[in-house]
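Protocol step 6 of 9: fold each sequence in the batch and record its structure tokens directly after the sequence line. For illustration, a two-sequence batch is reproduced in full.

Sequence one:
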Amino acid sequence: MPEPLVAALDLGSSKVVALIAQVEKSGMLNVCGIGFAPSRGVRQGLIVELDAARDTVLQVVSHAENMARVKMPSPAVSISGSHISCINGDGNIALSTGAGSRGRTVTELEVEQVLANSQSLQLSIDKSLLHVVPQRFYLDGAPCEDPLDREACRLAVDTHMVLAAVTHRNNLQRCLQQAQREPRRTVFSPLADAMAALTDEDLDQGVVLVNFGAGTCDALYFIEGALAHSWVFRYAGERVTRDIAAVLKTTLQEAEELKIRHGRIAPSRKDGEAKLSVPLLDGTGSQTVTQDMLARVMQARVRETLTHVMKEARRLEIHDQLRGGMVVTGGGAAMNGLAEFAESVTGLRTRRGRCEHYIGPRGILDNPAYLTGLGLLALEAAALPEFNRDGFPLLDRLQIHGQAGGSGSGNRGKLLDLLKGRKHS
């Protein structure tokens, strides 16, 4: 019997990635198909040219299928952008029939009901519910990690809800349908990163995960084992490139090459004195700049972004609870010296997010730009009995609920648990 297949499609502002993986008999993910191409038709996470975005999806899927020599199954698909917002909610339901009567055992039906109850809010006409993430359950007022199979008279929950623009979700759905790829689920990009990169210890100590994408910077704040807050900042990697182009008076293409090849946010004294030749925008010649000058240009925008990440934490009064520090992901996390620079700006211990629990070409997939895809694969594999979940502890710790598929028609749709195999307390 052939190994089951799972697939992921990450539509970013700078790169589109398709991954196909087999779930081996050992339980490991074996990434056997990879397709990637520069993104077209996507800006700041939004599809702005449907035909261009569709053609890019077709291109990367074809590359992944040719490499894997299999047809790509329906993928989990990422979503990001400045249209994403969040809100916290709460809900409760009675499990007993009246005063003095016994409660009853909590089943998945009651969990679904109380999560639906927590969504009793009026969404604006342009927003749809993307995810509902439980922060904490309560049985008769007492906190409970997992209420399943426990007896109580009342079940309550605090939730974190992620919202997305209806128009963008519909455009994403149309793009994928035209590419003949119906999504199995749509996942907020940094949540997929968290599945691949974070540990139980990260959640217990409190951590902020920062996805430095090309179009936006996304942050997730985890406090006391739960997702406390999510936040999107519209300036990210593309803005760094534009700053380099403006200050050094060169083309955007040359600025991107400088950022990737020579960009060191925290260069050593020796490296900082290195000379770089930069073509001028008007084509009249070139100028010589130092590595240190390039670093200062990059530092200015990255410092602004990191400052906003910490400002948001202080606004929520959780900055003192981030004892686990910061984990940086996304294509921007590959910038040389980012972790060290982030530590100096935020005062938080910082590391680059990595995923170790897969089989495949690590020379490619260890780039943090692929972390979202690996997290999407883990989410897809989570329901398969063959899959070894040990390398992805957040599949059990962080329960993500949402609408199946990729359509975003308002707040309708049956609430489905996207993750199976819950841990019972």
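Sequence two, same batch, same settings:
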Amino acid sequence: MDGNEKPSKLTQRRQLRRNSTPAEIALWNMIRDKKLDGRKFRRQHSIGFYIADFCCVAEMLVIELDGQVHNEPGAQEYDFHRDEFIKSQGFTVLRFENRTVFELPDAVLHAIRAHFDENLARQQGLR
């Protein structure tokens, strides 16, 4: 906890980590401990009053995994506003369906790496 974070948010993040979906566990095993190109990811990371499934702060990248519940109209509207807020904080949001993590894990990792490459190209263009 960073001193400014309310205990309830920390408790919520811990509960989300303990109750991870199988897709979250699978992706976490692919990206944890700097396994993906040396990038550090955090699980259940707070951004404002939202909690991102995964976040790589150095790359300003948030990864969200969506199950069936995200297809419901109320959930889609919530996700849209949530993504807009997270983007307003300077992050890019990548969303993947849970099944994609299992069926096409290399494609998921490729999409994440493509973000790294785009970030690098932007940085080099600014120098």
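Proceed to step 7 once all outputs are recorded. Observation for sequence two: Helices lie at 7-18, 22-31, 73-88, 98-103, 105-126.
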